[in-house]
Amino acid sequence: MESELVIEDLECVYKKPSTLTDTPLHYCPGCGHSIVHKFIMEVVEEMGIQETTIGVAPVGCSVFAYNYMNVDMQEAAHGRASAVATGIKRVRPDKFVYSYQGDGDLAAIGTAETIHTVNRGENILMIFINNAIYGMTGGQMAPTTLAGQVTSTSPYGRDVKQIGYPLKITEMIAMLPGAYYVTRQSINNVNSCRKLKKAIRIGFENQKLDKGTSFIEVVSNCPSGWKQTPLETMTWIEENMFPTYPLGDIKVSK
Q1: Which of 95, 140, 162, 187 has the smallest number of Cβ neighbours within 10 A?
Q2: Whole-prediction pTM value?
């Protein structure tokens, strides 16, 4: 006689947020994008703002984010997500608006949009995924690639004398008067994940204050681009990424 599993006797320790769709993710196994997606949608569900939230995703690994986040989503051209988010927020100031961008998008082709959006103090949340590489197009060197880091276009490591130093754009925009809340978090362990989710909640709550831009950098991983297992990438983040991109709040306005 086969034993029957009695669901009623089990304690539910985790439940997928209703704000995430059931669509299978296209991300590589172990990629940090799926973790950040989950936290954003958990916050949206907990705040009860699903019907009043609009996300903007540009070209990059997150180009299909609209398939997974069950809120209104708008696609933007490469690097222009913050500009599109600006237009949406100005037309619909009653909405919670966020952009979701990678380092090749926000810190390269979209550098100008990023700086001017924050300098104007647009009342949006910008979420910046920094995995120090171009994940979608083949693992090329990004503006955030570490000194000496090997990529498909820097096979001998990033040469700072020829290419320049890694761009710490989060520290740069923190100096702008329009930046209200600027923080750098990560997905490398459970404690970091808790802090990241808290930061996302703060970023959305700040829109009620209309005091400026909230900016969250997420130090993430790219198992495929780094040629490592997901577990190895977490150690690599701690040993290599954090010295250049230390975690913590950079600017918290009163």
Answers
A1: 162
A2: 0.94
